[in-house]
Amino acid sequence: MKYDEDVNHYITLTLADLVNPRSLELIHKYTVGLDADAGQIAVNLEETAKKYFLYKINADFLLLSLGLFHPDTNILGNAYLDKGESYYYCAASSLKAAHGGRSGMSDVLEKLSIGFGNYVEILRHMKNSADNFLSFHFKIAPQDMQKMQETLSLEIQKRKK
Fold first, then answer.
1. What are the residues whose beta carbons fall under 8 Å from the beta carbon of 66, sequence distance 6 or more?
2. Count of domains forming the chain
3. 3-state secondary structure of 131
């Protein structure tokens, strides 16, 4: 698979948006979750810009959930890949309609639509690679866990006094 630098930048900025309070407000407003369908909400939206945000935010949610954050990634398998592809395609189409044609962003969204499954796999690999900075899953040695529990217990006891 060819790595597209513009997609890498997009994913990096999407991750950065997760710590931006203004972005989080928009994310919470439009995210529908894994079992819902953003298309059912989009039907009632008249503004193409709102449709764009709805599809983009839910496509990003699926990409990051399936690739990095969801604890049952291996159990979910490829169940939501078609949905992610569709959301990115609809986001790109809505953006083109809102802006009257192609843009750099619509091109990136189309790349994500076409390669959604591949990008999820890349993120999964990065998550599961122990030497990677996106590895959120790691094992703590039993003796270290015991020491941490003892330290926490002592701190709790001190604060209760």
1. 73, 76, 80, 81, 84, 120, 123, 124
2. 1
3. coil
Question: pTM for the full model?
Answer: 0.75
Of residues 64, 62, 42, 44, the one with CA closest to residue 52 = 42
Q: Tell me which residue range forms the domain holding 112.
A: 5-160
Identify which of 67, 65, 63 has the alpha carbon closest to the alpha carbon of residue 132.
Answer: 67
- Angle 104-106-112 from CA coordinates, rounded to 5°: 105
pLDDT in tens, 145-154: 788 888 888 8
Alpha-carbon distance of 58 to 32, in angstroms, equals 7
pLDDT digits (tens, 9 = 90+) for 97-137: 998 999 999 999 999 999 999 999 888 887 776 565 555 55
